[in-house]
Amino acid sequence: MEDQYITNTPIPNGHFYHGECHLSKKDECIEVVCPSTGEVYAQMPIASKETVDNIVLASYNAQRDSDWATRAPRERAKVLYRWATLIEQNQAYLARLEAIGSSRPMHEVLAWDIPYIIDTARFFAELADKHGGYIGATQSDRLGMVIREPYGVVGAITPWNFPLSMAMWKAAPALSAGNAIVIKPSELTPFSTVYLAKLAFDAGLPKDIFNVVLGSGRETGAALCEHPQVGKVTFTGSTQTGASIMSACAMTGPKPVTLELGGKSPQIVFADTKDLERTAHCVAKAITGNAGQVCVSGSRLIIDKSIEASFIECLKRYFKQLSPGVTWESETTLSPIISRQQATRIQSIVDQSIKEGADCLCGGEIINGLGGAYFAPTLLKIHDEKNIALEQEIFGPVLTIQTFDTEHEAWSLAQHDVYGLAAGIHSANLDRVMRGIRKLEVGSVWINRYGRSFDHIMPTGGYKRSGIGKDIGIEAFEANLRSKSVLLEFDEAY
Ligand code: TXE
Fold first, then answer.
1. What residues make up the catalytic site (predicted)?
2. Out of 274, 332, 374, 487, which could bridge 324 as a Cys pair, Cβ 3.0 to 4.6 Å?
3. Whose CA is nearest to atom 19 of ligand 1?
């Protein structure tokens, strides 16, 4: 049944350039595994430095020689609108590709990811002609203009947790601002991005303005970041890889970088939260959605001691009704972990945390017998602030629990030494909420809810080692433009 589902879905398993999907004969291939079943379902080329060079140069020439950057911005916007419509029309196939290749359940892709990327494309299309430079306050015999121009080619490296959404985060603002983009998707989830680029081409994007190069991080990703014709790099992934990318961009540019990196985000629950059951559902969803493989996943529960016991019961009830399974079954509510290797990594952190004194209140282990790698939703009661589960981004359905007696204690537990991506506060006390917003050193704060929404005007990105720059919002659009100062002198006397 599963095999049939996969074999009936044609896989676009090549680099996308010159308006077509190509399997480069020169590149070696690797196997790509379906996370739901653990079985190989396709081969994928690993672009060599030479292939990357050819694909980037094609984009560089297209951005320079086509009218993409110079045409009226409203005309660029029309292409992005058509792209959004084509995504809508092809959503069934795109959702199949995403479900087979990643941890995203099909019903969630159709209800969330696809509408989300359609809206993202439209949001950035709307911005195409809503920006401009400014006139500088110069001497009266001069006119000083600051004009905004695209970088040329934007290089993007995307992760495996939300392949379509991450590709759209990078592509839509870059294209709307008049750049070309070359994306290297994760080697674990490469193919939906290829099809996204094909749809953009079908929508009327000039050839090579949106190319996709497939390959590994170390070889292909590094070659893309280091390429001299790449003007800017945007990345979502681990903090460690973000640092390597930033250093590569410094050595071969310097090039500006946008980095959206790891997190260890707290969910702080006060005893005055309006509805305990509802809050517990919100907290549970924020750690089990996509099996916790979300950068902003709310992985640290910090809760008032007086409500801890009843809250934990609510969490356990929520966890119990989750159903692990292949992403294309409608009953599946717990995603697979992206790879066996990631599942083993989660297991080793959980084991170490318990060794260091944490109490495992539920879960704590890989769910065997399902083909793919699945991890049971886990609660770890932490007694020591140095516990590994508090320090490391686990990227699985593992929630640590710490308790507090005073508000002061809550804010101090919430602060993380390394990460500052997001935080959630659950409280009905507005003064307290406002104090929290001011105190927390994070890029996003959610009050009485958790997670992003379709409000694309809200930028996303971290403080501290969770990254620099923003995706989404006007800031993401602006980050795809550079400034040119123009000083024009004229004779005031006549
Ligand atoms: O990430 P990497 P991995 C975190 C999460 C996870 C850990 C490891 O904690 O457990 O990272 O996952 C490309 N030059 N996040 O190893 O390495 C790589 O090919 C250029 C958080 O998968 O960051 C892929 O396309 N590119 C996160 C992308 O980087 C390189 C989402 C991400 O891989 C490269 C994913 C290099 N030297 C993991 N090395 C989030 N913030 O949402 C790798 N890549």
1. 260
2. 374
3. 217
Residue 203 above 50 pLDDT? Answer: yes
Taking the domains of the chain in order of start, what are their residue ranges? 2-261+468-483, 266-455
pLDDT in tens, 105-115: 999 999 999 99
Helices H / strands E in the chain, number of each: 17, 24
Check if the beta carbon of residue 375 is closer than 8 Å to that of residue 347.
yes
Asked whether 225 lines ligand 1 (CB < 6 A), one says yes
Q: Is the CB of 142 under 6 A from ligand 1?
A: no
CA of 72 to the centre of ligand 1 (A): 37
Mean pLDDT on 264-273? 98
Instruction: Tell me which residue of 155, 136, 264 sits closest to 217, measured CA to CA.
Output: 155
Q: What is the DSSP string of 265-314?
A: -EEEE-TT-S-HHHHHHHHHHHHHGGGG--TT---EEEEEGGGHHHHHHH
Which stretch of DSSP H or E encloses residue 419? Answer: strand 419-420
363 lines ligand 1 (CB under 6 A): no
Over residues 156-175, the pLDDT tens digits come to 999 999 999 999 999 999 99
pTM, entire model: 0.96
Yes or no: say if 184 and 158 are a contact pair by the CB < 8 Å rule: yes
pLDDT tens digits, residue range 325-344? 999 999 999 999 999 999 99
* Three-state DSSP state, 95: helix
Measured in residues, the chain has a length of 494
Four-way CATH pick for 2-261+468-483: 3.40.605.10, 3.20.20.70, 1.10.150.20, 3.40.718.10: 3.40.605.10
| pLDDT mean across residues, the chain | 96
